[in-house]
Give the backbone structure.
Amino acid sequence: MDFLIDLAHNVGVGFSVAVTPYNLLFCFIGVTLGTIIGALPGLGSVTGVAILLPLTFGMDPTTAIIMLSGIYYGVMYGGTISSILLNTPGDAATVISTLEGYPLAQKGRAGPAFAMCAIGSFVGGTFGNLVLTGCAPFLAGAALKFGPPEYFSLMILGMGSLVGLASDSPVKGVIMCAFGLLLSTVGVDVGRGMLRFTYGSVYMMNGIDFLPVAIGLFGMGEVLFQMENIVNLEMIKTKITARSLLPTMADWVRSRMAIVRGSLIGFAIGVLPGAGATIASFLSYATEVKMTKHPEDIGKGAIEGLAGPEAANNAAAAGALVPMLTLGIPGSGTTAILLGAFMMYGLQPGPLMFKEHPKLAWGVIMSMYIGNLMLVVLNTIFIPVFASVLKVRQTILMPLILVLTLVGAYTLSNNMIDVWIMILFGIMGYFTKKYDYSTAPLILGLVLGPIAEVNFVRSASLAQGDLTIFFTRPLSLTLLVFAFLGVFYPVIKSLVKKMRRTGSGVLWADRRR
């Protein structure tokens, strides 16, 4: 009973913060920008949040995080626009939408496809928010029992999970994460208070800021890659009116359980560090392929195959915020950028944030309910407006984004060194994308490295130099075991597949005998 009273009080506090005119305005700006970024092929939520992060400078931290969160889940809605009209996903999480959405548009049913996507996204996002609201106090309370060894192991788990799941090659993931950790060591040694790797530069004394690195990797790197691969995308010419948006009763019947299943799958996958909305949408689609009563429509415009994954990727976006807000562990590449934004404002996501900054924590969570309502309206009534954004040629759009990254990097501290760092990592971002190296582990290593180092030093001091403290405390050991499994997940998965194939081959040979 006390829990419900406290939860009701926290929800009331959160809504009182979220419904202020200033926060409502920037929530609307965030979801609108997110929809536009999602509609532009190739950008995605990580790039969008990284590029637009400098716009929040000078804002109240609560307002800034509300806007950035709006961009994050707004991209999940907007990514379907280019998927349905261009057969080109706006974000990796909306790849599945091309398989069923584009055939529906070719049949002249783009309107119902957009409407069902918006409804599925709303249900999935709202379900994720409800579970986030209920889970947050439990997880935050449990995490208050963590000591320095557990926090160090938790940071390792966060990095390990993203390293293993971000790429098919754990070696590439480890290389990128290790490079991020190396960058995080620049500045002051927390153990001895001495400068390291600064090479006499005053700028380097405070370490390498993650923002120019993130803008370069995700912003400039993406633009350079897109400019090399510019193609002329042809949009389906279809008239979308308010009346044409209405799905039929058959659409509702076919989609209702798909949306429920997608919401459940999406949130469960989103909570896992490193899994993300892309995996959730693929699993949801695979489920619908097996569960559908109309297998003949799969790949040809099955609306349940569109609604389920859309619910899943939005539920996953909310799920990814659970470990970040309650434990300080990003659940995806985008939440790694959001974690950096929190730290930029002097805030450390985790259990203490709910105790020390309840208005911010609950204000952000409650704003997501309002943002989802805004997105339903935007992605039904104003779909023709957002679709017109796709008519801007990439040869014009990409240079404009490039200019925005340069200006954004300079405005961080009005220092050209930030611009040069951004350009350097922009070039690196181009090559990492070209040769399939995931950049999310690098950002995660850079952001979590200092936190891991501080807790390592504290743990070593607590144990008087005995490093077995990380293995003798049960919770710390459990987290390290999961971190190990996270890093080597692709290897384990490959070995299991190989064993199955070998077993099947032996069984088949025995049968022939």
In short: The first helix runs from residue 2 to 18. The chain has a mean pLDDT of 78. The radius of gyration is 23 Å.
